Structures are given as structure tokens and as C-alpha cells.
Amino acid sequence: MTGGIQRIQYAVTGIVQGVGFRPFLHRLARETGVTGFARNTGHGVSGEAQGDAQAVGVFLAGLTDPRRLPPLAVVREMTHQAIAPVPGETGFAICASAADGRETLISPDIGMCEDCRRELFDPADRRYRYPFINCTNCGPRFTIVRRVPYDRASTTMARFAMCADCAREYGDIEDRRYHAQPDCCSGCGPRLWYAGADGNEQPGDAIAQAQALLMRGGVLAVKGLGGFHLACLPDEAASSMLRARKHRDEKPFALMCRDMDAVRRICIAGAEEEQALLGPRKPIVLLRKRQRGSLTWLSDNEDIGVMLPYTPLHALLMDGEADTLVMTSANPSALPAVISNDEAVASLHGIADGYLLHDREIEARCDDSVLRIADDGRGMAEYFIRRSRGYAPQPVHIDFDCTGVLALGAEQKASFALGKGQDVFYSQHIGDLKNAETLAHYEDQIARYMSLFGIEPKRVVCDLHPDYLSSRYAGRTGLPVLRVQHHHAHMLSCMADNGLDGECIGVIWDGTGLGEDQTIWGGEFLIGGYGGVSRAASMRPILLPGGDAAIRQISRIGDSLLWDAGLPGASPLTAAMLDKRINCPPSSGMGRLFDGVYALLTGRRDVTYEGQGAVLLEALACGAQDEAGSLPVQLYTDESGVLRLDTRPMIRALVSLRDGGAESARLAMMFHRTLIGAAVQICVQLRGRTGLDRVVLSGGVFFNQILLRGLSSALRDQGFGVYIHHRVSTSDEGIALGQLAAACSGGQDA
To answer: 424: which residues sit within 8 A by CB, 6+ positions away?
Structure first.
């Protein structure tokens, strides 16, 4: 810009509402000496700025300087243009919001900041021990927003009129709560109370009563940000009682610890893991137990999920005798999270002994995020088990335009994704689409995302499986539908997650996915990219006696492996089913192989949650005391030209070693190393055939850290570039990203 008075009109898009961006602009204007205004719009923040050329230039530079932005702000784009100056203007104003579109991004819910924590426990502060303390840098966002622009009237805080003190803070540019929409205090904000098992409010200090119940060994229902938790002491008696009441036999419980000292007494936490726990998003982080084989009543494997208090209510609850509590979702089995007080009291009757309730409504269900820290070859990074609270609905930015695409995900770990420009608005955790209640929640959230972000889908993408409820929903939309094969979507999800183009080798290992030949796939090696893939290699199929029943009764898969390998030992009933091929669908699912091998090594008959056999087999392998070798496998090419991994030699060797008295942990580790070696051998063959030297790893089996680390390292040793997920989950939860990528890249209707 040249000299003289200049005026510009500017517009900023990104996460710029509810994060202190307009106060930041006000301070920036004061520092630079410009006049003008700022306002929230349906697109983000816009306004005008006027001053001499140098001042306006410094103001514009500051708009996108990451060193100066508020901690939660994300600027996606800033545009400006020169306009005519306004004579006599003084000052810089924050104007009323303008609802002129739906282009803005909504911030995720953010854990309590350190400034609010200090005030919460400061007896001299007017918000001392007030459980809904927040500011522009922390607190509820996504779970209270009803519409945009993000103003108090557009949230579930609308019914709470600010008192004079809060209104003064809200209007003070120097205050940390300037234009903080959920700002409140005990005089004007939500109220907390304790209710007994009958749901009736009890007089007295709610936090003290809740803590007393917990110390007596009771189960407490706690209303949080995006739903309810059930809390109890982490000892075996209380945890076992909660399991019995909730019918959650063995699936691991997460813990909430008061601070990092409490975490370290239980787990081993590295620097990156500690950073994730202490950061503003406050996910559950999977950590290795400090003592192997400990806390088995909480977690049946060697890891345990841990989080720190992320709301002031949680911080107050943890400020007592117990520095660690079980904290698990309160939703009834297989149903969406409970969000209303009345619903909680009704559905948790007989489970909870008391309730910690408040009157701030939850607009959107949002479960805790779960992740671990994994080495992606370029450093330690987040590796999502579940991407939800603290992350949703912040979009995943990709390298191509995806406007107007609605991707519906799969059935297990359901999710959806809506595209707008290069932003993918990914849903929070939904659950398994197996009942009407979860389907209704799924459909409600699709409608909510469409409304919040102003997206009108023009086409829909779903899984190839016609019986998934998500696939049936696609047919009801009346829009053009693209059906993408399950494992192709997994592969493209990892490619889009890493910004890859062209063609790759995809090692896609999971439990179940409908293949193009209408059989069950799951141990796949694919070649190709966004436009299409070919199935280059796969595991030799095994039969699943009883179909889905074998997924729950894994001894049936163990029997099938014995029968297939020509070994004795299968139960007579299962052997008869296999001999006559009665309800024995073939499956190349790698997850099923893990289930069967675990059954063979341990005699386990049933599992109580999906993937438990694989989880326990990994835990068993971690106990190997000496260097384990590998087992024999065989590769052959079938009549369709697909390279097959024949596991029968491995099963024969495993059973022989087992019967000879070999330690089961050592055999479990040999199994893992055998699969790693076979996968590397196949990838080397495929590179020789195609020249491709990039490998993406996706599918729920790659939650297994022995496989993930071992295969990644072995492939890199062979000169491959290896890519894993880091922005969406490797499980079916991440599949919507791959579906969307297929729709935006010329994929063909399957």
C-alpha cells in the first residue's frame, strides 16, 4: 500500500468464532492505530479497517500471524480489498452479528484452561468452586451450539441472562471473557445439584455428596459436556459391581486421574503422551500399565485409557480423597449417549446410586475421544481409536474439492463426513448402526451438520454392503448414490489422511467387509488409488461356522482352523457343519484369524466385545520372555490371479509347538512376526510387479501396536515409504473419508 489514509474490507474464515478472535482484532486495531469494526457472520468474521498505509499493512499481517492468534483460533483464509475511507471515524467497534451464510467453523469443546483452573480453586475469586467457569480460551462450544453465528442466543446458554458483573466482563476488551458466549457465574449461570438413586434432589453440597457416595463404593452418574459418565472407585469391588450393573463384562474401563502424578502411579507416559493429556483437547490416551498384568478388572490387556479432568465440574469432583476414578460412558449398551437429566434417571435406574446433575442442556451428544501416540515414520503423532470430543467438528483439510458430497461410513463405529471446498466436516463418534435409536441419532447429526455448516449434499457415498443401515439411508435420500467397496475406502482414507496422490499398495486388514465378489474380505493387499484398485493379494479364506455367531464364539473359528489344516480337535458339531458347509461362509478377514489363533492358544470359547480376541492375543504376545522366531507360511496364486497367504502350515506348526509345551506368549509373538514377514514378502513381490514403493496401512487390525510398529519398520527397511493414519481412525470410523475421496476422484459406481 502507498501513503495516505486507506480503508480495507476484510473477511476471515476458519475457527474464528467463540475463540476470542474479535477481541484479538480489537486489541490488534488498538496496537496498530487503525479504526473500523468487526462482526461475526455466517462465513466467519468480517469487517473494515482504516488508517495510514503502514498501520493497515501491520493490521493485515497480524490477522494471520500464528504467533499472535488466540490459542484456539484456526485461520483458513483471509481476503481483503480496498474501499473508500470513512471521514472522521474514531475507534474500533465490535458490531452485531450478521447471519449471511453458513461458512464458519465451529470450535470443538475445549478443556478447562489454566487461568480458569486457578480461579476455580482461588478462595478470593468470585467464581471460586463454580463448576461452569469458562472463558474465550476454554469451555463448551460444539455441544451447546444450536445454530450460527455463534452468539449466546444461538446456544443452550440463551436462557441464562448475564448478571451485571458477567456482562461487564463480556463487554471489557481487556478481560479474558470479552465476548465469551458461555460466560456465567453462580449468580446467573447453570446450577449443579446432587440427586439420590430415585432422581430426587438432595439438599447440601452437591460435590461433597457425590464424593461421599464414591468413597462408599457407590456408582455415580455425572452429567458432562456431551453426555453422562458413570464413575466409581477403581478398586475391584466397585468396578465389578459397575460391570455387573451395566452388563459390560470385560470391555476395558477408562480412568480419570486428578493429575499427572496420579497417572504416573498407574501408567508409563512419554513426553508426547503427557502433552496429549495436558493439551486443550483432553482426550483419553491409551498408556502402557506400569506393572504388567495389573488392574485386570479394569482392562484385560496391557494398556489402559486415561484422561485428566477437562471440565471444572470434573476438577471439583476429583478434588477429594480419590485421585483416580473409573469414568465410563453412561449410555445403555449399544444405545446413544444419555444427554438429558430425565433420560439419565430413567435409563440408569438400577445402575447409578446417585446423580450429579445440572440445568445446562446438551445440544449434541459427543463421547470422549480415544487415541494413542504412535510413530508414523516422521515422528510421534496422534493415532485415533475414536475421534470425537475436543476434535469434532473441526474439519479435516484435504487436497481436493469435495463440495456437496455426503459420505455415510459403514456400520460398526459409524461416522459420516460432509464436504465443502477442501474441508471435510467429520462427525463425532456415533456408535454401531444396529438399532433404531442409533440410526435416529445418526440421521439427526447429519441434519445438524448440514444446518450448521450450510451444506446441501448433491450426491451420497456409502459402503458396498446393501444391508448396512447407512447404505439403506443412502437410498432414501433421493440423491445419486456411489457405492465404494469397504477396503478400497479404507485404503483411500489413509491416502487422503496423508495427502497422497497417484497409486499405492494398500495393506488393509480388518475383520469384515463385503468384497466385490460378494464374499467376506479382510486380509487384503490392494493396488491402485482414487480411481480404482485391484485385489492383488489376500489371505486364504477360512470358514466361519455359524456365520456371525463365530465372531462371538471364537472357539468355532479355532475349530475351523484345525479342520482346515487337517488336524484333529474340532468339536463334533462344528466339524459336521464344516464337512457339510452348513452356514459356513468363507472369510479372508484378518481379525477372524486373530480370534481363531487366540482360541487355539488359550482354549478361550467366547468373547464379550468386538475385537477382544485380537486385543488379548496382542497382550499375550507382549509377555514373551525370549526372542521368538517365526512360523512357516506358503504363498500361492489362485485361479483368479490373486496371490494368497496360506496359513495352514502356520496353524500346523503352532498346534505342534503348543502340544509340545511351548509357552503361549512366545507362540503369540511368533504368530505376529510371521504375519509381518509374510506381509513384507508380499509387498516386495507387488513392488517388483508394479514398481510401487509406497504402502498405506489401514483397517482395525492395525490398532495392534506389535503389527503396526513391526510391519512399518520392516517395510521401511526394505525401502518402502509407509503411511499410517493420524487425522482419522484406522478403523471403520475413518472409512467415510475414503468414501468421500472416491466420490471426488472419478470413482465408478460399484
So the answer is: 395, 396, 397, 398, 402, 417, 418, 737, 740
Asked whether the bond before 149 is cis by omega within 30 degrees of 0, the reply is yes
Q: What is the helix (H) or strand (E) element at residue 126, kind and residue range?
A: none
Q: Which three cell numbers stand for residue 317?
A: 469432583
In this structure, are residues 256 and 314 in contact, taking their beta carbons and an 8 Å threshold? Answer: yes
Q: What would you measure as the largest C-alpha separation in the chain, in angstroms?
A: 95
Dist CA 530 CA 52 (whole Å): 50
**Residue of higher predicted confidence among 27 and 588:** 588
All three cell numbers of 717: 527397511
- Decide: 352 and 279 in contact? Cβ < 8 Å: no
pLDDT of residue 457 exceeding 80, the answer is yes
Confidence of residue 80 (pLDDT cuts 50, 70, 90): very high
What is the C-alpha separation between 71 and 76, in angstroms, rounded? 15
Question: Which residue has 468413597 as its cell numbers?
Answer: 215
Q: Are 376 and 730 in contact (CB under 8 A)?
A: no
Distances (CA, A) of 560 to 300, 514, 537: 26, 21, 22
- Beta strands, E only, 299-342: 303-307, 324-329
Question: Could you give phi then psi for residue 388, rounded to 5 degrees?
Answer: -150, -115
- Distance of alpha carbon 516 from the chain centroid: 28
Q: How confident is the model at residue 750 (pLDDT cuts 50, 70, 90)?
A: very low
Q: How confident is the model at residue 748 (pLDDT cuts 50, 70, 90)?
A: very low
Tell me if residue 291 falls in helix, strand or coil. Answer: coil
Residue at 494: amino acid letter: C
> CA–CA separation, 675 vs 394, rounded Å?
37
The b/e string for 131-144 (b: 16+ C-beta within 10 A; e otherwise) is: bbbbbbbbbbbbbb
pTM for the model stands at 0.92
Q: Which amino acid is at 552?
A: R
Q: What are phi and psi of 257, to 5 degrees?
A: -110, 145
Q: For 209, list phi and psi in degrees, rounded to 5.
A: -65, -40
> Which domains does the chain show, CATH number per domain?
5-94 (3.30.70.100), 192-358 (3.90.870.40), 395-498+732-743 (3.30.420.360), 539-697 (3.30.420.40)
pLDDT over 70 (residue 749): no
The grid cell for 97 is 452479528
CB-based contact 643:325 (threshold 8 Å): no
Neighbouring CB atoms inside 10 A of 5's CB total 15
3-class DSSP state of 549 = helix
For residue 421, which phi and psi values (nearest 5 degrees)?
A: 60, -130
Whether cis (ω within 30° of 0) applies to the bond prior to 66 is: no
Among 18-27, 175-184, 402-411, 689-698, which is the least confidently predicted range?
18-27
- Are 98 and 41 in contact by the 8 Å Cβ rule? The answer is yes
- The conformation of residue 145, written as its DSSP 8-state character, comes to B
